[in-house]
Amino acid sequence: MEISGLRVNGKRLQESLEEMAKIGATPAGGVQRLTLSDEDKQARDLFVKWLKEIDLDVTIDEMGSIFGRRPGKNNDLPPVFSGSHIDSQPKGGRFDGILGVMGALEVMRTLHENEVETERPVMIVDWTNEEGSRFAPAMVASGVWAGKLDRDWAYSRTDRNGKVFGEELERIGYKGTVPAKAWPFHAYYELHIEQGPILEGEGKTIGIPKGILCLHWYDIYLEGKANQVGPTPMEGRNDALVAAAEMILAVQSVPARMGGNMVATVGEIQNYPNSRNIIPDGVHFTVDIRSWDDDLALRAWEQLKIDFQAAADRNGCPMRLEETWRVEHTPFAEKLVGFLAQKAEALGYSSHPMVSGAGHDASYMNMLGDAAMIFIPSIGGRSHVEVENSRWEDCAAGADVLLHCVLESANEV
Ligand code: GLV
Ligand code: MN
Ligand code: MN
After folding, report:
1. What is the C-alpha separation between 81 and 59, in angstroms, rounded?
2. Using a CB cutoff of 8 Å and minimum separation of 24, what contacts does 73-78 make?
3. How far apart are CA 150 and CA 168, in angstroms?
4. What tens digit of pLDDT does each residue of 126-185 get?
5. Which residue in 367, 388, 404 sits closest to 192, CA to CA?
6. Cross-strand partners of 68
7. Pocket around ligand 1: residues whose beta carbon is below 6 Å from it?
8. Residue closest by Cα to atom 2 of ligand 1
9. Is the separation of the CB atoms in 121 and 184 below 8 Å?
10. How far is residue 85's CA from residue 88's CA, in Å, rounded to a whole number?
């Protein structure tokens, strides 16, 4: 068969996504497959089984990332690879991450059943802990692989219950022995849901992001003075939650105050001792700042530090700030972005240029070599929620674009 006539099997892709969605399924139709949980392990086991069924050479690295390799005609040439993540948010959706892994698997299955020979090897990857929701930060395994994060620091990260990343990785049996160290690659592609409203609004099938915003994560710890709420007058209290409330409002208003294009969010908070009749004496909350303009994001943080100090002083609550994680904005490789547009057109799909506001492992890959992403529409623009949804035909369209981009790159010599 002519290579240009190859298509993925959309029904098989749908069935694989549906099978995966059973693992960690939530009553409201989403999934909860937190990094290194039992559900993560179960989904990994199924993924590895599927890789072996099509004779891929499977390796697990020290960070638990799973790789499957399909030889090319010339195995000295750096491979083309593609993938995403199996982990999910708490009460997350059935498409975030797993579409890119099942889409890449569908590409591999299509190459396998059609006995397609490529010049270069083709690889598939599931990156450990892309979400960063159980263990901060996000994209940790691709960050270590890219040499941007320290492996032992990643191992030492703890979740809210004090469970340690490295120990959990071992517990689920996915602490591999292959060094989590980058090898040369020719191109990296990641298929993903858009997670926003643009494609649906424009009525387009394929999103072509020019790159990914910068991501800056911070952790704020506040100390107050606990006391009985009834007898303690309002004056002179050191209420850590009130200080946090003032800080959260400063975060909400900072994008407008900076007059630039960015978003800033407090998504997580812990309040201690969290009793309605005790003045809070400890608060931890997180700040997430994203922009195409890294400098603007850094200046916003400088402004927030001033705002936070003023709120801490007003409430007599000492604070500690942690600059947990930063990834710079990344413009994707123009050559690959061009392939995406060409392949979408050749396959008869409408496409739309955009940027990615969500973080992806493609950020770290793009620091080392050529990377690009393929987006498909998110129904209602909803993601990181149980109602996250995409049309099956759009999943297949994205996988077909992925197939032909992978083939284009894998046949370049
Ligand atoms: C990753 O899911 C992100 O936070 O964008
Ligand atoms: Mn994702
Ligand atoms: Mn996500």
Report:
1. 14
2. 73/117, 73/118, 73/119, 74/119, 74/120, 74/413, 75/121, 77/119, 77/120, 77/121, 77/186, 77/413, 78/120, 78/183, 78/184, 78/185, 78/186
3. 18
4. 999 999 999 999 999 999 999 999 999 999 999 999 999 999 999 999 999 999 999 999
5. 388
6. 58, 124
7. 131, 138, 358-359
8. 131
9. no
10. 8
CA distance 292 to 313: 33
Pocket test for ligand 1, best of 131, 263, 378 (most atoms within 8 A of CB): 131
Distances (CA, A) of 134 to 9, 83, 138: 34, 21, 9
Q: What is the pLDDT of residues 23-74, one digit of tens each?
A: 999 999 999 999 999 999 999 999 999 999 999 999 999 999 999 999 999 9
Residue found by looking up tokens 């900076």 in the block: 258
Exposed e or buried b for every residue in 283-319, given b needs 16+ CB within 10 A?
bbbbbbbbbbbbebbebbbeebeebbeebbeebebeb
Contact predicate 316/238, CB 8 Å: yes
In this prediction the pTM is: 0.97
Quick: pLDDT tens for 357-398: 999 999 999 999 999 999 999 999 999 999 999 999 999 999
Place of tokens 């955009």: 354
Which ligand 1 atom sits nearest the alpha carbon of residue 357? 5
**Cα(213) to centroid of ligand 3, in Å?**
14
Q: Is the pLDDT of residue 260 over 90?
A: no
φ, ψ of residue 138 to 5 degrees: the values are -80, 170
Residue 89 Cα: closest atom of ligand 1 = 2
First to last CA, the chain: 22
In the structure, ligand 3 is a single-atom ion and the residues with CB under 5 Å from it are 96
HSE (CB half, 13 Å, CA atoms) of 262? 30
In angstroms, the CA 274 to CA 269 distance is 11
Which ligand places an atom closest to the C-alpha of 385? 3
